[in-house]
Amino acid sequence: MQLDTIRELLDLPAGWKVTRILSFRPNEIRIIVEELITEGQPCQQCGATGWMGSKGFYETSVEDLALGFRRVFLHLRHRRYRCGGCKASWSLKAPWIRSESRVTSRYAQGIFRLTSITTNTEAGWYMGLDDEKVYRIDKGILENQFLERLVPTPVSTNISVDEVAWKKHHRYLTNVVDVDERVITWNAKGRKAEVLDKYYESVGKENCEKMQSVALDGARTYISSTEKYAVNASIVLDRFHATQKASQALEIVRKSELRKARENKDEELIALTNCKQRFVLLKNKKNLSDAQAVTLKRLCEINQPIYKAMLLKESFIGVYDLKDEDEAIEYMYRWIDEALESGFPSFIEIAWSMVDKIVYVLNWFKEKRSSAISEGFNNKIKRLKRMAYGYRDIEYFKLKIHQHCGYLNPRKSQLN
Fold first, then answer.
1. What element of type H or E holds 408?
2. pLDDT 10s digits, 19-39
3. 20 to 30 Å CA-CA from 347: which of 151, 199, 295, 388?
4. Same domain, yes or no, for 228 and 301?
5. Which residues are within 8 A (CB) of 58 and not within 5 positions of it... i.e. 6 or more apart?
6. Do residues 3 and 86 share a domain?
7. Which residues of the chain have a pLDDT value below 50?
8. Do residues 203 and 277 share a domain?
9. Does residue 416 belong to any structural domain of this protein?
10. Which domain, by its residues, includes 310?
11. CB count, 10 Å around CB of 329?
12. Distance of CA 300 to CAs 288, 296, 305, Å?
């Protein structure tokens, strides 16, 4: 094969040439690549321009993308230059080489694309690298792209804010999602008000005032921060989180009744309220199968507390089916009264929280915005964490979230 053809296959930049093939084996190819003399280089010591003499070479070895399932190793001969005036010597940097990892830039990009769809371990196995090297290459590219695309923080008009656990013992990350673009634009460690304050400060006061809606899960820390900065935005408690809160309250009632059934040795009630049947209570009644509908009907017949809790859950979620905001106000206050009189501590707690947050429920009728996309990303992030068996480097984990759910995703970059 002609050396010029090999040069084209390797996509070498100007100023480099293939001098010879060092070895050609079933599993690898080793090629010697030499740097050509570049005239007119200024001296890096004294700054003088003009012809600089050559002072020989020094060699390094880097890996490039495979050719025909053979790993390719380039033995680079870097030229040393010498200044005729100050006698200083130096060599030119090769931007197409990632010297810290001893791979070419296009090889690093290949690894980056792999790590966006699989784990570092699997990507390393496919490319023949150890996990640590894959980690260094991947993190280096992500850090560079983060500075290019996410600094300063992208401005959003409608956002969703939610937290996700990244480690045991209540270690959380706060994620901010651009609802319109459907990407995570910012994240940080913690879930206090001060954490979200940093996001609003990063986009600036003027952009904060232009925000139209902020969908939240009702956390006081996020609400206080949003009210402080996004003064013109409507804070929305959407249907997803309302359903989640009501389902959690119903689950507490189910567990309480299950304990009583076990104490009374009521085998039928135990069978209908055990953990395998909890999804019958949590699912929307419209989505129940025939068998599940029969189970729910029987459960409500033999257990009054669960039947009452079921009604409270369904009626609480029902506010989002209304069309008129004024009707929703009356509906919510009526539900709060019923919940307070129910005697269920879990529903009483929701009722008291709704006294202060009813305006956030009503904002849904104005904005029709949802934070369900944040929960979808949370599931994706949890899957990412499970695949990697956790992350020790929190900064790297934040970058990986942007790679899989934000503007650092290679697929997103291609679309743009």
1. none
2. 999 999 999 999 999 988 776
3. 295
4. no
5. 77, 78, 80, 91
6. yes
7. 415-416
8. no
9. no
10. 248-366
11. 17
12. 15, 6, 8
